[in-house]
Amino acid sequence: SNLGDQRQADNQRLQAGLFAGWAKFRLQDGSSGFYNSEFKEVVKTLALDPDAFKEGLDQPGVKMRKWSHSGKLAPWCSLCWKWLDEGHLRSDAHKKRLTNVKAEVD
User: Fold this and answer.
1) Which of 4, 34, 53, 70 has a CB 3.0–4.6 Å from the CB of 22, allowing a cystine?
2) Is pLDDT larger for residue 11 or for residue 19?
3) What is the pLDDT, as a whole number, of residue 3?
4) What DSSP letter does each residue of 21-75 carry, written as one string?
């Protein structure tokens, strides 16, 4: 079923690092969703907005946040506190913060 496939996909996404911070919850009426305590956001499913920028998702500090336009998820740069898009990914400020984070890890 489509619902079963969606649940399986959501569970796989929860296990992926990109969706860290999201926890599944169930309401008394039996419906479920996902909650992110860091951002205090709730979404029905861990679906990436089809229009979301998809480059750089594996970079440190990239998290998924609820995109207000669609209610789905889009990449958020927690290093700079900005939505991840091409302009931000290529900005000097982002590159500098990314270099600093990588230097801390090494």
Assistant:
1) 34
2) 19
3) 63
4) TEEEEE-TTS-EEEEETTTTEEESS-PBPTTS--TTTTSTTEEEEE-TTTSSEEE
Q: Residues near 34 by Cβ (< 8 Å), separated by ≥ 6?
A: 10, 14, 22, 23, 24, 25, 42, 43, 44, 45, 46
Residue keyed to tokens 């008394």: 28
The DSSP symbol for 16 reads: S
Sheet of 22-26, strands arranged across:
22-26, 32-36, 41-43
Grade residue 65 by pLDDT with cuts at 50, 70 and 90: very high
Contact yes or no for 11/40 (Cβ under 8 A): no
Mean pLDDT of the chain: 85
The vertex-100 CA angle with 95 and 106, nearest 5°, equals 125
Report the predicted TM-score, pTM, of the whole model to 2 decimal places: 0.77
